[in-house]
């Protein structure tokens, strides 16, 4: 099985390294795409950018955090067999609101306006608070800002037709776990899977996350 791993707004693809190694060891192929480009693109442009980095067929596409805005378009461009939302924003398919419209309901209030790439202490407090010391260093090294305007402003399109899995980190300090639980049920019609982790379980709980991914695949 192929897994295409999509980084969020504050990390490079290196944030997926631990999960990718575990997926590979289990006999799968893992491709962490890089969404960073010299200029901002429309949603379809980022989907094609991901398509250009993948040479397989019908992968499971896994998105983290703000890249949930792009997940439906990337999944369509790659003809995905399934989608996985890891602490990821689920668009308002029925109402058409953007992440910017919903920010106060989606995000923890203390996180709004924080740039963790400019302050390692803030990164540790909000993103990596559940990482052990051995993990925190590479976690901090993975920090990188990717925040094109389209992520906040893009209105939701149609809901994806392929199966979805929603993973809710119960100790998330950036995206509200209660909101994500409700959005998974109401917007995708699925019962979320909970994991005892902060916002980045691919770093703090890679084995548990990889087991969920392989089990769902």
Summarize the helices and strands and which ones pair or pack.
Elements: E1 2-6, H1 17-25, E2 29-33, H2 43-51, E3 60-64, H3 71-77, E4 82-86, H4 99-106, H5 120-126, H6 133-141, H7 149-153, E5 164-169, H8 177-188, E6 193-195, H9 201-204, H10 206-216
Parallel strand pairs: 1-2, 1-3, 3-4, 4-5, 5-6
Helix pairs in contact: 1-10, 2-3
CATH class: Alpha Beta
Radius of gyration: 16 Å
How many strands?
6
Q: Beta-sheet strand percentage? A: 5-15%
Domain AB hydrolase-1: 3-211
Protein name: Alpha/beta hydrolase
GO molecular function: hydrolase activity
InterPro entries: AB_hydrolase_1 (IPR000073), AB_hydrolase_fold (IPR029058), Sec-Metab_Biosynth_Hydrolase (IPR052897)
List its salient traits.
six-stranded parallel β-sheet; Rossmann fold; alpha/beta; 37% helix; 10 helices; 217 residues
């Amino acid at each position: 099985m192929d897994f295409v791993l999509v980084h969020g707004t504050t990390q490079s693809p290196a944030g997926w390294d631990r999960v990718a190694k575990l997926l590979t060891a289990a006999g799968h192929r893992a491709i962490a795409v890089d969404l960073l480009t010299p200029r901002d693109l429309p949603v379809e442009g980022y989907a094609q950018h991901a398509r250009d980095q993948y040479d397989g067929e019908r992968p499971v596409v896994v998105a983290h955090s703000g890249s949930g805005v792009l997940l439906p378009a990337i999944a369509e461009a790659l003809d995905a067999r399934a989608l996985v939302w890891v602490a990821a924003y689920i668009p308002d398919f029925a109402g058409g609101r953007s992440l910017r419209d919903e920010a106060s309901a989606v995000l923890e209030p203390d996180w709004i306006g924080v740039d963790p790439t400019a302050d390692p202490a803030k990164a540790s407090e909000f993103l990596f608070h559940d990482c052990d010391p051995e993990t925190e260093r590479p976690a901090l090294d993975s920090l990188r800002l990717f925040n094109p305007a389209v992520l906040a402003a893009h209105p939701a399109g149609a809901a994806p037709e392929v199966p979805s899995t929603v993973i809710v980190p119960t100790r998330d300090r950036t995206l509200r776990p209660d909101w994500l639980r409700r959005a998974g049920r109401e917007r995708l019609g699925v019962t979320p899977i909970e994991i005892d982790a902060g916002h980045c379980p691919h770093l703090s709980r890679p084995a548990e996350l990889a087991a969920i991914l392989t089990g769902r695949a």
